[in-house]
Amino acid sequence: MAAGPGAITGAARSSYNSSSAPLQQHPLAGLYRAIDAEVRSWPGELHLYPQAGSAAAGWPGTAGRGPGPGPVAALVYRRSYARSAAIERLMGREPAGSAAGPPPHPALEIRTTPLSFAIEFIVPVSAWWDAENLAGKWSLPRCRQQFYHLLAGLPAAGCIGFWAGVEQQGLHWPLAARRATRHLDDWLSTYAPGSEAFRAGQWYPADDPALTAADFPARVLHTLRALHRLYWFATWTSDNHFRDFYRRPAPGPDDV
Fold it and tell me: What is the pLDDT of residues 123-152, one digit of tens each?
């Protein structure tokens, strides 16, 4: 599953259109074909950005190479350009891919490097608007419990953390220990929105036999479904603004 740099066609500032810009040379093209129709059917108008690079690698663009030991290939799903532009205006910046910096949006990312394969939900440092929403919801006990309920839907082999880079780092919280909520409360309180990324997902070594199993696309979709629920919990919309939750009745565990 190690990635090689692949040419990806399509306009740099438009989301992917499966009928006009096939990812024929992309290392993850086969996986894309297996999952894309379902992912695009989920709430939130997720769009594939084939030239976005990798959120974990700091959005290096189309070159397909991050700051790690070799090439990075990623499938990145995030807000549509219309929704992105609306959020960026609220953030006080020029909308839709200005040269002012990396895209300030959370992403669902599937990524392969020479060392690993990852399935992640990422709130990058640049997405401080959404990061503040996430941290604000963590400050409310009923929303924090809802977050823990969503973590329970992720694979126990996964983790969450605040590190940077395309590879899994040592400073993370293993989801196998997610029941230790008192300690997790303290750990989440150290999160600094706008200064560090929030990460949640599952990582596989590049030589893991699971990567070549016939059911691996189904496993990827299973993990992505759970991560999408975290995405929907965290990302800001006019209906998902943490200050509003002070004035709402406590939600049920499945109300995201």
Answer: 999 999 999 999 999 999 999 999 999 999
Burial class (CB in 10 A: 0-12, 13-18, 19+), 81: middle
Checking if the pLDDT of 71 tops 90, the result is no
DSSP string covering 121-171: EEE-TT-HHHHHHHHHHHTSHHHHHHHHHHHTTS-TT-EEE---SSS--SS
Tokens of 17: 């259109």
| Identity of the amino acid at 125 | V
Tokens encoding 210: 């699971």
Contact 230, 200 (CB under 8 A): yes
Domain extent listing, the chain: 29-247
Phi, psi of 49 (to 5 degrees): -115, 90
CA 76 from chain centre, in angstroms, equals 8
Give, rounded to a whole angstrom, the gap between the first and last alpha carbons of the chain.
34
The DSSP call for residue 201 is: E
Query: What's the residue count for the chain?
Result: 256
Q: Is 159 a residue whose pLDDT tops 70?
A: yes
Residue 144 zone, left/alpha/beta (φ > 0; ψ -120 to 50; rest)? alpha
CATH classification (class only), 29-247: alpha beta
Task: Give the model's pLDDT for residue 164.
Answer: 87
Query: What is the distance between the alpha carbons of residues 142 and 180, in angstroms, rounded to a whole number?
Result: 17
Between helix 141-151 and helix 128-138 the angle, nearest 10°, is 100
pLDDT recorded at residue 246:
59
The answer to whether the beta carbons of residues 164 and 124 sit under 8 Å apart is no
